[in-house]
Amino acid sequence: MPNPSYVTFTPPEELMKATLEIVKMARETGKIRKGVNEVIKSIERGQSKFVVIATDVDPPEIVAFLPPLCDEKKIPYTFVDSKKKLGEAAGISVAASSVSIIDPGAAKDFLEEIIKKIQEIRGRK
Fold first, then answer.
1. DSSP 31-95
2. Is pLDDT of 104 > 90?
3. For helices 13-29 and 108-121, angle between their N-to-C axes, nearest 10 degrees
């Protein structure tokens, strides 16, 4: 399935796996927000450190404005290929279109590594 228009870059498979691990660690030792409404609030309040967006959201309009909003607020973000996996990593029994990490907890150093890799992929420093 080709990526929807809101996907601004495609992270490699291992980066997606690592991202899901970080969401799980942040959930267990830090603080996350789940679902597009909570994610938007965390971005607009300046609480979000990192946003994860699923690429299989239908309709795509649900999350299409998240990448530009993150760019505007200078919040790093990435994509994962499955809202089901994102929901599982976030500790919920339903799919999650997006997750915002407020406090990475024990995942802090891992998160910094991921952000560096994403900046490299996107060609930004």
1. EEEESHHHHHHHHHTT--SEEEEES--SSGGGTTTHHHHHHHHT--EEEES-HHHHHHHTT-SS-
2. yes
3. 150
Tell how strand 98-103 and strand 77-80 pair up: unpaired
Given pLDDT bands bounded at 50, 70 and 90, which one contains residue 4? confident
Beta bridge partners of 54: 80
CA–CA distance, 86 with 60 (Å, rounded to integer): 16
Tokens of 3: 């990526």
CA distance 79 to 81: 7
Q: Residue 24: what are its φ and ψ, rounded to 5°?
A: -65, -45
pTM of the model: 0.95
